[in-house]
Amino acid sequence: MQTQCARNHRGFTLIELLVVVAIAAVLLAVAVPQLQPQVAAASAKSTASKLADALRYARQYALNTSSLVTFTPNGCGYTVATTAGAQLLSAGSGASSGVSCQALSTTVSFLGDGSVALCTQGAQGLSCSAPTSNTAATASVSGGGSSWQIVLSSGGVVTTSGS
Fold it and tell me: I want to staple 40 with a disulfide (CB 3.0 to 4.6 A). Which of 104, 134, 143, 157 is the partner?
């Protein structure tokens, strides 16, 4: 009786395990390429959110401290610093693979009242001026068939839209 019980509780054979691993490998080979656009789209959304959040942070810091805070774009990355870079407040790196950015083309400064000034670095230092329209700056991030727009109004309000 004991011998028959032992036969009923056997494990898997090596052949059975190899068949299962082969089936899993085929399924993964088919599924992974189909997921890459979704991964790139999620990365694009994440990058757009990080840029928008950094702009909001810079404005809020300027309001809280009544000081000039600059947001300097660098591709999909950025730095947020106090006047003339005296104190680095925040920094972000570029986007991941499959994501492209059309970032802000100029440094944006937030004044102590939360409003926006557009700045460029010249031979005489940082030169700032008020935006000439209601939209101070825009940026776009795309990847995996998804596109996100970040709009900074002249009043300092940041909005994000996309799909």
Answer: 143
The answer to whether residue 13 scores a pLDDT higher than 70 is yes
138: left (phi over 0), alpha (psi -120 to 50) or beta: beta
pLDDT at 72: 85
Distance, in Å, from the CA atom of 151 to the CA atom of 146, rounded to the nearest integer, reads 17
Q: How far does CA 129 lie from the centroid of its chain? A: 28
Handedness of CA 105, 53, 140, 136 (dihedral sign): negative
Count CA atoms closer than 13 A to 64's CA, side-chain side: 7
What domains sit in the chain, N to C, each tagged with a CATH number?
A: 13-162 (3.55.40.10)
Identify residue 47 by its one-letter amino acid code. T
Tell me the whole-structure pTM to 2 decimals.
0.74
